[in-house]
């Protein structure tokens, strides 16, 4: 049997949980769903040893990008690339993978930068890749 104090605390706890869920959603929701984060799965070895194949990274837009920042940018022929800024000249960013001996041939401007590394979750991208297979994706939608 519930007491009067328990009856009063239930709506407060529910409201707190709702606020926490909304805050969490706003914090990590993908841009595709109106959030501020972009999710990227590492598919190469250019950023090893810190970022490895299958890692999941979340990037967020920033007001400024500086030398040393790890950023994702859109390369017109390839798509999203995640590399480190090594120099900035006349509004163009020169980037390089930590594990590469060469600089990127494309120098994006600020508008082409998707965002700065915010969260790194080792190996989590492997699970997202499995979810993206047609059989699992279809099963998840149907059930």
How would you describe what is shown here?
The chain has 3 helices and 6 strands, in the order H-E-E-E-E-E-E-H-H. The mean pLDDT is 83. With 143 residues, the protein is an alpha+beta fold. It has a 6-stranded antiparallel β-sheet with strand order 1-2-6-3-4-5. The protein has helices at residues 4-28, 124-131, 134-142; strands at 37-41, 56-60, 70-75, 79-89, 92-96, 113-121. The relative contact order is 0.16.
Q: Give the low-pLDDT segments.
A: none
Estimate the strand proportion.
Answer: 25-35%
Reading the helices and strands in chain order gives HEEEEEEHH
The total beta strand count reads: 6
Indicate the multimeric state: single chain
Fraction of residues in H or I helices: 25-40%
Distance separating the two termini: 36 Å
Sheet with most strands: 6 strands, antiparallel
| SS content category | alpha+beta
- Shape by Cα distribution: globular
Number of helices: 3
The whole-number mean of residue pLDDT values reads 83
Q: Strand order across the biggest sheet?
A: 1-2-6-3-4-5
Radius of gyration: 20 Å
